[in-house]
Design a protein that fits this description.
By secondary structure, the chain is an alpha/beta fold. 32% of the residues lie in helices and 14% in strands. The mean pLDDT is 95.
Length: 209
């Protein structure tokens, strides 16, 4: 772990890359004051399902204005998404080595209603870090942070996988790897359900340099 600070956006069951940053940097600024961006990991994750990569998106309440701060984004109940997401996770990972060990930790997040997306994401993130036995120092921003060094708000994105010399995805066992080969940088849930206590070792090996 370095003593440097990195900037991250909130993420729903964020990708392996996101958690590697939390492990790598001594302090994480969690951006809450940016204008919310759609089609990002802020409310979306990608898992490995039986038919290949599957994106799960949390519906949000449409803001009254064109721009809305991330901290003010509310979760919508539209489409019974909690039941659908939980069913997708169970279907994808019930045969994984560690799903049964963590099922009771994850299930409440698909039963309890949270008002704000960032609170939901952070509660999930705290649970995941606890299960992996590491505790990153997270500081929520109170003002928008200008572009800075070690700024991953845009580069960690499902829309474009930008070159990150600090991140080298390490292959690990995946349920459907014989069908699709290794799928890198999926949701941290994929790593946790497949590798359990060894997840943190995969994260450590994914930090390049």
């Amino acid at each position: 772990m370095t003593n440097m600070r990195a900037i991250l956006s909130t993420a729903y069951l964020g990708p392996v890359q996101q958690y590697a940053k939390m492990l790598q940097y001594g302090e994480i600024l969690l951006e809450t004051q940016e204008n919310f961006q759609k089609q990002t990991y802020r409310n979306r994750c990608i898992i490995a399902a039986a038919n290949g990569p599957l994106a799960l998106s949390i519906p949000i309440v449409k803001p009254d204005t064109l721009k809305c701060l991330t901290q003010d984004i509310r979760i919508s109940d539209h489409g019974n998404w909690r039941k659908l997401h939980w069913h997708a996770l169970v279907s994808a990972y019930r045969m994984s080595p560690f799903f049964e060990y963590y099922e009771e930790d994850f299930a409440p997040f698909y039963e309890k209603k949270y008002e704000f997306l960032i609170d939901y994401n952070e509660s999930l993130r705290e649970t995941i870090c606890r299960l992996m036995d590491f505790e990153p120092q997270i500081i929520r921003t109170t003002a928008y942070t200008p572009v800075a060094e070690h700024d991953f708000r845009e580069s960690i994105s499902p829309k474009h996988q930008t070159d990150d010399p600090e991140f080298r995805p390490q292959p690990y066992y995946q349920v459907f790897q014989e069908k699709f080969g290794f799928l890198p940088n999926l949701s941290i849930a994929d790593l946790l359900f497949n590798m359990g206590p060894e997840s943190i070792l995969v994260l450590q090996k994914s930090i390049a340099g």
